[in-house]
Amino acid sequence: MSIFRANIEAAAGYVPGEQPKEGEAVKLNTNENPYRASEKVYDAIRAQCIRGLSRYPNAVAQPFREAAAELYGVEPDWIMCGNGSDDILTILTRTFVGENEMLRLPYPSYILYKTLAELQGARGEEVYFKDDWTMTDYFGKAPTAMETAPFRAYPLEGVVPESLKLAFLPNPNSPSGTLLTMEEVEQIAATLPCPLVVDEAYADFAGVSCIELVKRNPRVIVTRTMSKSYSLAGLRFGFMIADPSVIEQTLKVKDSYNCDAISIVAATAAIQDQEWLKTTTARIVATRKRLQERMRELGFVVPDSHANFTWNIWPESDFDHKDLYLYLKRHGYLTRYMRYQMWGEGLRISVGTDDDIDACLNLVEKYLGGDRS
Ligand SMILES: *Cc1c(COP(=O)(O)O)cnc(C)c1O
């Protein structure tokens, strides 16, 4: 008999994007920010190193909560911080979803949600986006077998709808980069029998947020990360904005010191430098536009991106996206090839510097011209 919990043994485990050695490849595969974070962040880290690290950090990252609360027009007790927003997503799953209860997630989207369901011993239910990446009636009714059957982490027989305990919705979505309006999200939240987590990892690139919804509806929870728009993926800091009644419970679930002293001062300095965020985001959005337009000219189907990447699909089914990915990789450009069962494949390209994107686009063009070197 196995010594492991059955759901752990059965889980595939989340596989993060490739991280090559420094300088080995241009990284356009994990949606990191190509620009260096605000110098104020590095100053804050240096100052903390001088003060020392012998004391435990503030357990709830209070300085960051106060800075974020001011920015978003809420009180600090509406905010909980985590070791990256993945930590927040784990805490939310543990807070709301019991064993054999159900968690709903869209498809194709962020694969981690499914892993979290599996580790929890919960039943995951993946539901299709429509062809145009909308999903208005998607959460409200129980999806039909046709819409979900191939994608369940666990069979649904015998599961009553009341067991649906949590729903995830990345907005903008990954890998598509597409965005639902706040009205659409509000409609989804209103018809759900459970809390809705709006994962806003890329919201700074969209200029649209559901934080206003959180203020109106205690069942809406927004998660954010410093990894993408603030260029601090290596720091590991994320947070959520939710009704204080939710925060009160999730604080019990988190590790006592889930954010370290360095990440707290650094994230606080970062969120206080909105000028840096504005300038850098504008640059990335401008490069995104060029990338998107050029990929379309080259013949790819590219949904309108509201994030810091584009999702590129060749319209004919005989195209081998993986071969293009391997070609780019041989030439030093790392992108993200994705294949979604029953749905299809594509290539996700993160927005890098203008030079890197131009070089990558030239390679794509050469590949389409027949080069296989
Ligand atoms: C990158 C990403 C995250 C994770 O962010 P971290 O704060 O680095 O853990 C969460 N959700 C989505 C959709 C992402 O793309």
Could you write a compact summary of the structure shown?
Helices cover 39% and strands 15% of the residues.
- The strands making up the biggest β-sheet line up spatially as 2-8-7-6-5-3-4
CA-to-CA gap between the ends?
Answer: 51 Å
List each distinct ligand once: pyridoxal-5'-phosphate
Beta content: 15-25%
The largest sheet is: 7 strands, mixed
Give the helix/strand layout.
Layout lengths: L5 H5 L15 E2 L11 H13 L10 H11 L6 E4 L2 H12 L5 E6 L4 H9 L2 E6 L16 H4 L15 E7 L11 H10 L4 E4 L3 H4 L4 H6 L3 E6 L12 E4 L2 H10 L7 H12 L1 H24 L11 E4 L8 H10 L2 E2 L1 E5 L3 E7 L3 H15 L5
Helix pairs in contact: 2-11, 3-11, 4-5, 12-14
The chain binds pyridoxal-5'-phosphate (PLP).
Pyridoxal-5'-phosphate (PLP) binds next to helix 4.
Question: Would you write up a description of this structure?
Answer:
- This protein is of the alpha/beta class.
- Helices cover 39% and strands 15% of the residues.
- It has helices at residues 6-10, 39-51, 62-72, 85-96, 112-120, 145-148, 182-191, 203-206, 211-216, 244-253, 261-272, 274-297, 321-330, 354-368; strands at residues 26-27, 79-82, 102-107, 123-128, 164-170, 196-199, 220-225, 238-241, 309-312, 333-334, 336-340, 344-350.
- The strands form 3 sheets. It has a 7-stranded mixed sheet, sandwiched between helices. The protein has a 3-stranded antiparallel sheet with strand order 9-12-11.
- Helix 3 (62-72) runs parallel beside helix 11.
- The longest helix is centred in the C-terminal third of the chain and has 24 residues, at 274-297.
- The radius of gyration is 21 Å and the shape is globular.
- The structure holds pyridoxal-5'-phosphate (PLP).
- Pyridoxal-5'-phosphate binds next to helix 4.
